[in-house]
Amino acid sequence: MSWVADDRALDRLAGVLRETELAEGARVGDRYRIVRFIGRGGMGEVYLAADEMLHREVALKTLRRFRPGAKAVDLILAEARTVARLQHPGIVPIYDLGILPDGRLFYTMMYVAGRPLLEAMRRSADPAVLFLALCRAVAHAHEAGFVHGDLKPANVLVAADGGVMVLDWGLARPLASEDQAPGAGTPAYMAPELASATPQARDPRIDVFALGTILRQAVEDRPAADFDPVLRRALATSPDGRYRDAGELAGDVARVLQRRRARRQRGRLAVAAGVLALVGAAAAMFAMLKEDRRERARVHFDRGQALLRASERAS
Average pLDDT of 126-141? Predict the structure, then answer.
């Protein structure tokens, strides 16, 4: 009987979730038309929409319908305002803010058609280059006074041009704020201190821990000894043992990449020197063989001449 009850509960929940979705073709105000549903996260849902005023595709985000009230409006408004203040090539820009017919607030932003971060990293010759771009985008947020609070590969896309875009700033908060419930976020990427039962001040080092977890996933199947010190520091259990922010982490990642490039350059130079040495040796050998052939030709010529003179004297 309990299984039947559970099935019914799941059916009801599925029905509620379907009701929250905006139908394909639905109009949102006099500007947007819903193209399709993209996905749903912990608090919000995202749609691909057509901006019929500017003739472009946008992503439209709103909170789920089953989160009504002023608090829900505050959440989506806070996220929109946070994103609007973060002007960086690696942070998806916000375009517009509005209200759905059912009273939910929504905002529109750039639609990024790209690959999930881990997929792009696994296809990349050097995933650390993409990781560095991610660190620099998050560093911009830290410099602007915000912590993302939910960094994970699902919240990062790599566009067709290779640009890394950080999405979903729903849990972003100003530095040192404590207005978020303990444990909010994605457990696999959460810093240990966030598991505490008491509110924790928003600190860039919680993003550093999440970034370290992403880096560990990106390099786990590749030789990555260069990154061992970086990983140890980024994933330190104590916040005091970590990088102070994403900017400091990005500095060390950049230095590792510079050392790698220098080694590759030295390797290429050594190979080029070896090739030149082989070419020089081959040229010298060729010259020696050529000189040897000339010498033997002179010997044969001299012998022929001697034979000819002997024949003339005999006659």
Answer: 96
